[in-house]
């Protein structure tokens, strides 16, 4: 999630745990702890792919943060003695302010390495967009009450309760969409294929469905208000013929570990060279995928690994007005909102007549 939300979450947790004893101090320290895991953005891991895939790594590990929280609790118990705050309360304060950050991150699409240094792909159970005002505003309101009144517990606790209730609603909305999607996939013979259901920007009412089927991927939008209406699927190329070449490269293999099959491959002419580029299809929206990386340059008939760089998306065919179209799609499936309207023609394979 964004930095403001993580700071607000840490402050709310801190206030809920020790606000009665520490007052405003619990809120301020909680906010600082809530942003601490994201300091890894200042670490340069060597190249664009490494920075992309190692963000939310060791600094988001539940093992590392629990250990750090325990250490801070020991220090506070020793050097900031308080008659009614023992090690148990300090431990709950520091550990919860820290670990709630990666736990919230894991509820977004990007992926969080909760179990580092254990092997395995990042954890991601996307139920909220990376920025969601409906989640953040109750936290901020509760903090405002706590800072103004000096009661560091009541306001933050109420804000935390409301934001947590919103997460439960988001989980229910996703479950409903997946329940409606399952028979559609079965009817089209797509059950068992890799697929991703995630919220569209800034809301949990309209959901984006991405299905990977070998050389192609299918996109659809499903609203919680669609009822039994069959979703409109659009089909796009994903350059799967280039996938073996990418996977033979160290950085291509790393991207595959991070994003799984949700990658698109293409050859672009960059600085007079044919360059292999991989794009993460999970993040953003069709036509607005922000993360594309160079992997190799073609020299004659061979591909030579290149130092990965991040590219700006050059295929977008729409502007922020698309957000308004998404908002209108939440409440009405007619007229249909077609993602192919935003995607470069060269990727489009099949679109329904309604588009």
UniProtKB/TrEMBL annotation:
The keyword Ribonucleoprotein does not apply. The keyword Aminoacyl-tRNA synthetase does not apply. This is Metal-dependent hydrolase. Keywords: Hydrolase, Membrane, Transmembrane, Transmembrane helix. GO terms for molecular function: hydrolase activity. InterPro entries: Transcription_regulator, YdjM-like. The chain crosses the membrane at residues 62-80, 87-104, 124-145, 157-177.
């Amino acid at each position: 999630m964004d930095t403001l939300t993580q700071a607000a979450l840490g402050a709310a947790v801190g206030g809920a745990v020790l606000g009665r004893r520490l007052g405003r101090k619990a809120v301020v320290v909680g906010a600082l702890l809530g942003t601490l895991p994201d300091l890894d953005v200042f670490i340069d891991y060597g190249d664009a792919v490494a920075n992309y895939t190692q963000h939310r790594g060791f600094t988001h590990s539940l093992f590392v943060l629990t250990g750090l929280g325990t250490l801070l609790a020991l220090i506070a118990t020793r050097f900031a003695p308080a008659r009614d705050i023992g090690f148990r309360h300090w431990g709950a304060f520091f550990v919860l302010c820290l670990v709630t950050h990666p736990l919230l991150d894991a509820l977004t699409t990007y992926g969080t390495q909760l179990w580092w240094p254990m092997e395995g792909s990042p954890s991601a159970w996307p139920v909220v967009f990376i920025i969601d005002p409906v989640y953040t505003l109750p936290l901020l309101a509760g903090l405002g009450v706590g800072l103004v009144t000096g009661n560091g517990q009541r306001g933050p606790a109420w804000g935390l309760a409301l934001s947590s209730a919103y997460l439960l609603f988001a989980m229910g909305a996703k479950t409903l969409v997946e329940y409606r999607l399952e028979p559609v996939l079965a009817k089209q013979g797509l059950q068992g294929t890799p697929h991703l259901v995630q919220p569209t920007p800034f809301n949990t009412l309209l959901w984006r469905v991405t299905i990977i089927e070998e050389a192609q991927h299918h996109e659809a939008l499903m609203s919680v208000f669609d009822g039994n209406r069959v979703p409109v699927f659009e089909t796009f190329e994903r350059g799967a013929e280039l996938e073996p070449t990418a996977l033979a490269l160290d950085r291509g293999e790393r991207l595959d570990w991070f994003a799984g099959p949700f990658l698109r491959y293409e050859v672009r002419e960059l600085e007079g060279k044919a360059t292999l580029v991989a794009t993460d299809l999970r993040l953003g929206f069709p036509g607005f995928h922000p993360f594309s990386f160079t992997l190799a340059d073609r020299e004659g008939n061979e591909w030579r690994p290149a130092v990965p760089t991040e590219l700006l998306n050059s295929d977008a065919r729409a502007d922020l007005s698309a957000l308004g179209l998404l908002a209108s799609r939440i409440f009405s499936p007619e007229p249909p909102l077609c993602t192919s309207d935003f995607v470069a023609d060269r990727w489009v394979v099949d679109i329904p007549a309604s588009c």
